[in-house]
Amino acid sequence: MAYTISTALAVYFVIWWITLFLTLPFGVRSQHEDGEGADGTDPGAPILARMGRKL
Fold first, then answer.
1. Would you state the pLDDT for residue 29?
2. Which of 18, 26, 33, 47 would you label with 9, given CA atoms 20 to 30 Å apart?
3. CA dist., res. 48 & res. 55, Å (int)
4. By the 8 A CB rule, do 16 and 54 touch?
């Protein structure tokens, strides 16, 4: 057997993280786009990130 269990888990972990980071920007609106936001915050900060849905 060329690959061990630890190698398979490492590949799975890397692919999972890459997929997560690729899907993070989908559906996120910034404070600047919505015209909302608290004073003193960055205009590029997201209004609602929905991290639970993406995980």
1. 85
2. 26
3. 15
4. no
* DSSP category for residue 52: H
Is 46 in contact with 28 (CB distance < 8 Å)?
A: yes
- Quote the pLDDT of residue 3: 76
CA dihedral angle for residue 32, residue 36, residue 40, residue 42, rounded to 10 degrees:
-30
CA–CA gap between residue 10 and residue 46 (Å, rounded)? 31
Euclidean distance between CA atoms 19 and 54, whole angstroms:
10
Query: Could you tell me which of 35, 31, 33, 34 has the C-alpha nearest to residue 45?
Result: 31
Mean pLDDT by 10 residues, the chain (55 residues): 85 94 85 81 82 76
